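Before the break, one more example. Copy the sequence into your notebook; we will annotate it together after we see the structure.
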Amino acid sequence: MSSDTPKRPRARTTAAWFMLLIGAIFMAVWLARLAISDRFISTQFFAWPPAWTLLAPSAIASLLGAAIAPIGRTRVGAVIFALVPALTLLLGPWRLGNLATRHEPERSLVLVFWNAAPSTHAEGEQNMKQIATFDGPERADIIVVSNPGALRWSERFERATGRSPTHAGTTDFISPLPVIRSGPVPVPTYRERRSIRMGFAVLDTSEALPGTDTLTIWSIDLPSDRSLPRREVAGVLRDAIAEVRSRGHEQLTPPVPDLIVGDFNMPRGSASIALFTEGLTDAHTAAGLGPSGTWPVNRPFLHIDQAFVGNGWRATKHDVLPVDIGTHRALRIVLAPND
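Here is what the structure looks like once it is written out:
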């Protein structure tokens, strides 16, 4: 019996180190995910698993190692090691630090973005009811609906909401704010498959928020075809935006955006998103909280509907709203001018 006693701490130490190794592997995969992301077609889906699918197992495995380890330096080291992925997840992707800064200032606008796809004629009435919830308890000053489908041809929508949508390609902008300019942005079809769709609107904010001028919104819907290289798609969009700007056609050329919203079909944190959002700030990074998944609607695993803010505006709150129809959840963003 006495000869077995020394073996027990040794066995527990070995088991603890094994659990720490598992935790280290998950952490290493997370770091590799950050470094590689979707920069290559062979790794583009490497960036898709949300942060918690790697960092949470890393922390749990390390905590189990701490629980197994004998009291002493191994246990203390395991606890410290477990804190690294746990704090990385809470303070990084889940933005726990925003708890102290998220707010809705008096001088602000509330915008709701929703990708209503797929939207059929049969779903038009349900869409109207869903959008009415955005305009009610959520106090939306601006509602941006991508892929509204049958919604835009229904006169009942105007009767139900008292608002007339402004059509811009496959996007509808719904707001009491005057729309100065709007329209679709011509973007070429990518590889003869689903096209990149984009619309814009310039809204007059001078009366709603004295001291401000306008708010320019771009709505972007990128192809969902899984076989398309995401980085190439992002590059095509970047080049198309630059080309449209260079044409100089007043009605077709969108001004520099204050806000880009859309279904990017790339999860938050993908390196390719930076290609067409240069100079803008991720609204979730600035004012979001938690995982903020938007797709699929019933079990939101991926955060693919996103918003980026810049040019004199800032996001002070970012939330994901549940919906009763469609495949995507909605974004609710509070925008405040940089006075």
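The longest strand covers residues 313-321. The chain has a mean pLDDT of 86. Try to locate both features in your own notes.
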